[in-house]
Amino acid sequence: MLIDGCSKNNRVGIFFFYDEDGIVDDYITYLLNDIKKNIRDLLIVCNGKLTSDSRKKLLEYTDSIIVRENKGFDVWAYKEGIEYFGWGKLSEYDELVLFNSTMYGPLYPLKEMFESMRKKDLDFWGITKYHKMPYDPFGTIKYGYTPEHIQSHFIVVRKSMFTTYEFKYYWENMKMVNSYSEAIGFHEAIFTKEFSDKGFTWDVYVNTDDLEGHVFHPILMMPMELIKNRKCPIIKRRSFFHDTADFLNNTTGQQSMDAYDYIKNNLDYDLNLIWKNILRTNNQTDIKNALNLNYILSSSSYDSNTAYNDKKIALVMHIYFEDLIEYCLNYAKSMPPYTDVYITTSCEEKKKMIEHAFRHMECAKLEVIVIGNRGRDISALLVGCKEFLLDYDYVCFAHDKKTKQVEPYIKGEAFSYKCFENILKNREFVTNIINTFNENPRLGILSPPPPNHADFYPTIGLEWSNNFDNTKKLAEKLKLKVDMNRDKEPVAPLGTMFWFRPKALETLIKYDWEYDDFPKEPNNNDGTILHAIERIYPFVSQHEGYYPATVMVDTFARIEVTNLYYMLRQINIQYFNKCGAGPHYAVVSNLHRNLIASWEPKLKSFLKKYLPVSMINILKRLKRALT
Description:
Strand 2, helix 2 (52-59) and strand 3 form a beta-alpha-beta unit. The two termini are 48 Å apart. Helix 9 runs parallel beside helix 11 and helix 20 packs across helix 22 (529-543). The longest helix is centred in the C-terminal third of the chain and has 27 residues, at 584-610. The protein is α/β, with parallel strands linked by helices. It is built from 25 helices and 19 strands. InterPro entries: RgpF. This is LPS biosynthesis protein. Pfam families: RgpF (PF05045).
């Protein structure tokens, strides 16, 4: 069916929206503002809840809003939307547009897409499609494989199809959808084939036929190709927090970063629309992994020709050990001459020693502050320097570091080296850090990578250590609204040395910290409020609307790549020799199964000895459900 020129906007849209907190972010209104130019009427169906402010936002685009119980996913939201209009009312329109909030855009005006597709003789169409896959990863698709299909984030159905008996029957007999897998298997993956097999014609705006056999999921795995070369008007929200394992099962993990950079440098879409939404709704580790938020900066040249001498910069450094004063001074000299330098220490005698050592340092201001010896470097920053932190644009925080619990002491010295090198290598590197903050206004905190040598090796995988619960408790005390997951590592400065934008830590800085909030010496090596604060920094940043990231100087990045490659290779060799080679996801999955198998006999023996039969059966069913 062709849509003639005089009725080209005779469309009705059903927009499905879901947000756990019922908040309509600005990316939604940006999308609706454009779609309204191309349709006559709009119905918004919201699963779950909707705040009063968000309802007011949506009322600017339509008076027709349904807030329904959060069940049935998008499939039953569309079904209820169709029932709201009724078949008689729908027949007054030429096209029915079913679309949802799982995408950002438009990156290009939707008018271009509607005009292009209007010229095609079709019964239904969409923006992108998923290519045929010879298996069903969800276990819910009735065909036993995944057929080629239009993706359900945007499907347009013309009158030639939505007024038919087949279309009515499809929706009136839709099974209840109770999971994401069922939403795929009961609707998205079969809708296109169902109606194509009945003789209805279809197509997509972004043609990816040439990519068949190359990729199953083009919009997720090749977004820049679609956006840059095929004018795809959307990018999936999932691009910015998708499962890293699935990315690595298909690519080397470059896709979201490349697409983001292309949008940033070439299109007019406001990236704040993306940041505002993903920082509020997603885990910071997922965001960091999807966008590869690791900054590798030069120590030998400037990465930008722009100078930012107008920015107010501060170095805050805590020095407790007298024998490390000169060591700290050598790194402090990396700061630009317009820096205000604040040194905290524990007594007047050390203050005099520091003032003498730093007397020739090139800086705008030098002040040495005596603080109480309680809370170490954490209280130095949050109590001793609280009053002036928010006066600055960017602050570098460092401290002398001796890890005396690990012997020989060279191991702790190497940890200190890793922290200092990656925040204060030299003036070129520091200038590039300042430039990076200026060029990325949503960047809140830059931390060195965590230690992974010697006794610190378990840090990767045990980043929380014994501190998830106390960090979570602190987050509740600070009233942070962020996703905090025990199974996902914090993007935190695990040596408590980092650069930050004070605005990004405002909630933490303004909290009424006192020295008595911190434990007396001698302090425990783990599980204290100090270790909770060390991990809360990035979550405070996220709460304030800024993202945390990792930073490395180029010279240390050479070391880090060598170490990580060596460590991974040694683990792989041991695994491959016993279990055979395989891709990463298979190795991890097999390790998980093997570990469960090795413990199962011991577990069974314990259960038989100490638990009643009824409890054993419950645990067996739980195990089956989890695996």
